[in-house]
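User: For my dataset I need records formatted as: sequence, then structure tokens, nothing else. Please produce one.
Assistant:
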Amino acid sequence: MIELGFNQTIHSIKDSSTQVLIKTNDGTEISFRKWGEVGPILVMLHGGYGSWMHWLNNINELSKNFRIIAPDMPGFGESELLPYLPSLDQYAKILVDALDKLLPEEKYNIVGFSFGSAIGSHMMKFANEKVLRLTLVGYNRTGNMPFKRPKMKSWRDVRSKQELFEAQRFNLSVMMLHKKEKIDDLAIIVQTLNTRGGKVRSLDIVASHNLPSRLLGVNRPIDIIWGEFDVTLINGIDDAKERMEELIPDVKCHVIDDTGHWVQYEEPEQFNKIIYDIYY
């Protein structure tokens, strides 16, 4: 395996967290990392082939006024793989049960990115009154048509660090980040660590997901945050907003200009401000 070297940013944020390992009923260990001592609790769910590092550019600022809980969901990052391929509802229920152990007496908010937005929406079915608010980030399953992933370059067969970085830079450019200058070495290292840590295909878990119909039964405030040029929105940002506002009249949509799918990494200051506006 090609060595990436030591990255101070990742290690300093990781070292500032408290890690708690929760076991599921079948013995699978889920890693939760916690930051912050005061404020509302934000359970922040990463995207597909991701980990807590999808929130790397947001944790330091948000943890000043929020208590951040970021799991590596089962099969990703530092968490173990479940012994079976779960349905979306099974997966969501596992996370709700783990949070009941981690936060037995406290209510929390869910902030889900991409794959995590699907998981978070299904968690609402099982969490009942424990969830106060749901925020979806980079949500692309608006029900208008299925998303077709762009063709990616293989990073598994590269022979040098340069080739690895070139492949991951390309993959980030076609899927995750709009502005080329934001595809820095840190983004490439996070992407590489995350994809290496993936033990299950997120698309297999969300195959049966239909978020619009799921959200119709949610009686909690719902916000959606998108980047203007999120490539996962097949028919564009305006169509996505119109679709969701028709389905859920009280939904609040927030768009960050000139930004792609991984909006919280690409424009963290604007993203963090929206989170503050939503929860304070």
